[in-house]
Input
Amino acid sequence: MIVVLGSINVDLVVRVPRLPLAGETLRGDTFETVGGGKGANQAVGVHRLGADVRLIGRVGDDELGRRALAALEIDTSLITVDPDESTGVALICVADDGANTIVTAGGANHAVGARELDALKSALYEADVLLVQLEIPMPVVEEAVALARNASVPVVCDPAPVAPLPASVLAGLDWITPNAVEAEALTGYADPARASRALLDAGVRNVVVTLGADGCLYNGELHVPAPKVEAIDTVACGDAFDAALAVSLAGGSFVTEALRHGCAAGALAATKPGAQPSLPTRADVDRLGFV
Ligand code: RIB
Output
């Protein structure tokens, strides 16, 4: 079973011909609300790929919270509905070339704390892998990593949105999956191979720098390509990658197979619009024939 501790958002998505400049009012095209949040996306991604998953997180007791919960296809019993917080939202522009900008208002995600850590303690008894990201408070991530280490459960961390990671977190991670921009922000090195070595030196056991259409780089030395697809919307590609990686690791796959699974799921997510609606199923990945 895979446990995801993380954010739950409703994404407010506008299609635009190109990304807006600062200060510019840009005429957009369609508007949609879809289920999002890196934690929720990863949990739905795991479920679609056929593995058992538990999502631990928080939404507000409001209309958006009800929408976020309704969008999830998974067990919601470990999600707190908080009457004092509003549900997290993400304002997303997606351009015709598939590029995007995302701005979040964390709301209830920022109130994730002791209650979720208690739920995590119990869930870890059954967990094969813990997935975390950085849309919840850093002290909670820090404590979650420590709890997982104590329980001998491997932790995969997607350091997004990027923020400095305490040394204890880095040393407690089995896997980290930054994109190249995040890897540079974490280490100061623009070269993904150099950044990977810095993260390995900091104690992370496996470093994957995701490279979009170019696949990913493992531990600064093994390049894994991505399948060629027509990308229309790259939102949640990283979440799809993380979900597939975790599913493979929980299933005992070799590293290269797990990384190809991640690249396949990430690429497929780019071929459909939206966050959760774009996440591939196991059948989608099988049909692609890349893993
Ligand atoms: O990774 C994509 C996600 O980032 C979106 O669904 C949005 O909610 C933000 O959390």
Summary: The two ends are 21 Å apart (CA to CA).
